[in-house]
Amino acid sequence: MERFTLSVRRFRRLAIVTTVAICVLVVAGGVVRLTGSGLGCDDWPNCNDTSFIDVSSGHAAIEQVNRIFSGLVAIPTVLMAVGSFRVRPARRDLRWPSIGVLVTVLANGVVGGLAVRGDLHPALVQSHFLLAMASIAFCVVAVRRSAPHDRPDVEPVALPRSIERVGWAVGAGTALSLVTGTVVTGTGPHAGEEDVRRFGFDISNVARIHSVAVLVTIGLVLALIWMLRREPGRWSRYEASLTTWMFVAVVQGSIGYLQYFNGVPELLVGAHIAGATLLWVVTVGLVLTVVGDGRDEAADGPIEPAAAPASGGIASEVAPSA
């Protein structure tokens, strides 16, 4: 078995592939819902009560392709989990996020099946999306931990606890924005199929709550920027992560308002789903940058040094192409 090993660098490539695949799968799931194909296959794991695979209609074909792609995503997910135990020199700190990806992806397959059997109940569809966000978070942790030192030219220093708390608050605020966004989706018109159950909330009220969560989170990031700029010599280490987050958040917020005031057209809703996924990737990377990635350098072996300073941060490596 010692022949079947991975270097940390190869494991990182596998983690990046897994991250991108899950991000694309999230967007593909949005396409299924926005085209009204959520019950194109009304059974699970079979497409229907007569066929395992059925492409006899456009809706069935769209849902079938999504299921096939979901199965393919399981391949790098399993390889990543197994590979985390075969990294040499051994790195125990890569194992739990890799197992986290595997568990959440498998759980999401079950939730997806329950959503179909439950006629796309909005709570199950909401859980389906949020579990995917959990998978992405574990992936980003694994990518981050397997990276060389980000900035060998900048000596890492401990930040004040107040800054770390704000960093955690940014992560929590973004997570809350995602949750409230799924409630808006579960209340709105894009259910994945006509005449399925929706949340009985007033769409204007839940949209306002979602907007408040987003604005509060943006305010927290502005506070974080202000606090870091007051720390001499530290801003350069965090500038790329924070400016990337602000750019993605502003674009995402603009798409959100644009879709709301234009009757939530499918194309803009799809862009909003892709933007939410990208923002979550950037957020997890930002939190890890501010509070530390938690990797244990002394656990089993050394962490690879960087050959040159990183130029784009984690988002440039694992962000979905959509």
Quick gist of this model?
With 322 residues, the protein is mostly helical. It has one domain.
Structural features, described:
It is a single chain. α2 packs antiparallel against α3, α6 (203-229) runs antiparallel to α7 and α7 (235-260) packs antiparallel against α8 (266-291). The protein has helices at 8-34, 58-84, 95-117, 122-145, 161-187, 203-229, 235-260, 266-291, 315-318. It is flat, with a radius of gyration of 21 Å. It has one domain (8-148, 156-304, 312-318). It is mainly alpha-helical and 322 residues long. Residues 150-155, 294-303 and 305-314 have low confidence and may be disordered.
The total number of structural domains is 1
**Helical proportion, percent range:** 55-70%
Please tally the helical runs, counting DSSP H or I stretches of 4 or more residues: 9
Mean pLDDT equals: 83
Overall structural class, as computed from helix and strand content, comes to mainly alpha
Termini separation comes to: 39 Å
% residues in beta strands: under 5%
How many strands, which pairing sense, and closed or not: the largest β-sheet? none
Count of distinct strands: 0
**Rg for CA atoms:** 21 Å
* Cα shape: flat
- Unreliable stretches (pLDDT < 50, length at least 5) are 150-155, 294-303, 305-314
Helix and strand element order: HHHHHHHHH
